[in-house]
Design goal:
- This protein is α+β, with helices and mostly antiparallel strands.
- The chain contains five helices and six strands.
- It has helices at residues 11-19, 45-49, 64-70, 78-91, 112-117; strands at 6-9, 21-24, 27-30, 54-56, 94-99, 107-111.
- A four-stranded mixed beta sheet has the order 1-5-6-4. A two-stranded antiparallel ribbon has the order 2-3.
- Strand 2 and strand 3 form a beta hairpin.
- The longest helix is centred in the last third of the chain and has 14 residues, at 78-91.
Length: 126
């Protein structure tokens, strides 16, 4: 597992990250310079949500309460529910991707292998 399970991006970095992704045959990847990609391979938050373990987003409904129920947990409010979900997934080797300057919470839990393959962990891609 990574030493710091939280990745923090600005809104601009988040938008650039999404623009740098493509999905082909249900596999999410980073674009390679000089390669051609079809418009239907573009990734937006909805496409990314299909690859996330859990999320809290202004753009995409992440079914917070359904996820909490799947974990057989209960909470008194959304903040407590999200904290329990984050703790559950971080304990299982996932990473938390957070957009620091978003108007509303923008947080995504991704499997570590996916985060690494997408360039969020390890050496930064140019």
């Amino acid at each position: 597992m990574t030493t710091d399970p939280t990745i923090t991006l600005t809104s601009d970095q988040w938008e650039a990250f999404l623009a740098d992704l493509y999905e082909r045959d249900d596999r999410l990847e980073r674009r390679e310079p000089g390669q051609a990609y079809l418009p239907e391979e573009d990734v937006d938050p909805y496409v990314l949500s299909g690859h996330a373990e859990a999320l809290r987003s202004a753009e995409v409904e992440g079914d917070l309460w359904g996820t909490l129920a799947d974990l057989e947990e209960e909470a008194g409010d959304e903040e407590e529910a999200w904290a329990k979900i984050v703790a559950f997934y971080l304990d299982r080797g996932c990473v938390l991707l957070r957009v620091a300057d978003a108007d509303e919470p923008e947080e995504w839990l991704l499997e570590e292998g996916l985060a690494r393959r997408l360039g969020l962990l390890g050496p930064a891609r140019g």
